[in-house]
Amino acid sequence: MNRQLVHTKREITGLHQQLAAAATVIAALHHDNQLLRAEHTTAGTLTVLPPRPHDTAGIARSRQPQHADRHAPRPR
């Protein structure tokens, strides 16, 4: 009867260790899932900016090349 008790205690200890390991994995997966859900909801959000005033003179100036030779490759 003493051997059976020792064997049962070992089995229970092993099962407790497996349960603790499973709980750790579940907690880690739950945490990752929460982060992914948060990332997914923020990644799909668009911020609508107010309309910019139409400034044709400013647009024309910004499109002018900054150097004298128009056909030369622009510096990066």
Q: Nutshell version of this structure?
A:
The chain is 64% helix and 0% strand. With 76 residues, the chain is mostly helical.
Summarize this structure as a short list of keywords or feature phrases.
single chain; 76 residues; mainly alpha; rod-shaped
Protein described:
The protein has 76 residues and is mostly helical. The chain has helices at residues 2-43, 56-62. The mean pLDDT is 80.
Give the arrangement of secondary structure elements.
Elements: H1 2-43, H2 56-62
Q: How many helical elements?
A: 2
Structural class call reads mainly alpha
Mean pLDDT: 80
Sheet having the most strands: none
Q: Report the sheet-strand fraction.
A: under 5%
Radius of gyration from the CA trace? Answer: 33 Å
For the termini, the CA-CA separation is 83 Å
How does the overall form come out from the CA principal axes?
rod-shaped
- Strand tally is 0
Helical amount among residues, as a percent range? 55-70%
Q: List segments where confidence is low: pLDDT < 50 over at least 5 consecutive residues.
A: none
The helix/strand order is HH
